[in-house]
Structures are given as C-alpha cells and as structure tokens.
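Hi Y.,

Following your request, here is the sequence exactly as I used it, all 183 residues.
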Amino acid sequence: MMTKMESVLVAVLVGMTGSSAPAGEIASVYTSLDLSECRNIETLTDGEGSVWSCQGYNGIPVQVAADDLRYFVSYGENANARTVAQQTLTHFNTIHTMLEWRVERRDNWEPFATILRYFWERGDHGPKGETLVVTKLGVDDACHVAYVSASDNRKANDMARTIADNHARTFDCKRDKPTQVEP
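Below is the corresponding structure, written out as tokens. Let me know if you'd prefer a different format.
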C-alpha cells in the first residue's frame, strides 16, 4: 500500500514519463521529508539532537540531522562526507516536510539539485522568516548553492528553480560560495 506522498510522486513521474520529453528537459519531483516517516538512526550524545535516514527521489538516501536547534540535510550513500552535511542557516531553524528535486531528462530522469524550505528565527522573540535553500547534487559532493529569501516573496520558488537550473550543475562545492538572494 502506497503512502499519500508516494502516490503524489508516482502521479508526477507518470505525467513526466508519459510525454515524449526531449533530452535535457527539466522538471520538479516532490518527495516527503516528514521525519515521522523516516528512520531515526542516531541520538546525539547530548540528547539534544538526532539523525534520521529518509528515502528520497529514486531511492536516494536523505540524511537529516538536528543539533543545536538547527537542521542539516545531506544526500547520498556517503552523506556525512559531503560538504552539505556541515551546512545550515545561521539562525535557529526547522525544515519543511516536502522536498523538491530538480531533475533532468537524459536516458532517465536524473536529479541535479534540491530545493528545501527552512523556517528560521533569531530567538528571544526576534524576527522569523523562511528561506529556500538550493542544493547541488553531484556525484562526489553536494553543497548549498543559494539561499533565497522566501519571506513575503511570491517569486521565491521560481527564483530558486532558476538558480538550480542555471547554476547548480556547474557550482564547485570546494571553490564557490553560496549566494544570498533577496526579492
């Protein structure tokens, strides 16, 4: 029996594969990042954090770690060794339960980036907001490409997709620095 999210994913994939897509076509696929559906693989020694293993697009492992009131999201079999495993927003944050994958049609639909909404706050009743984090998915590494301000920004999703599509594949995780994008 499929979960609701798996049904949505199947519907999106059927719609994509049912068309005669030219090579290089780009689309979005969505998977759940609901931690209650993921496997808790570690409780951190201070008892203040945890690490979860979740299923992503096409079986790609997604690792979520929560520590010091911040979330870290990494991808792939060797998630801990990727640059993104050490990247998060500077403010206290949580993550959305839906993960957008940007995929490109080659022989199959291959993911090259993700877009994830973070909810943040500065603490002590300070400002709160939302940021879309664009992450490059590479063979050897994954890392943040851009932080798109999503607070009061109706174009944030389109902006994040454009950045993913135009910059994620050529972004160098060792050399390049993520950009901050305001509306």
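Helices lie at 4-17, 156-167.

Thanks again,
Q.
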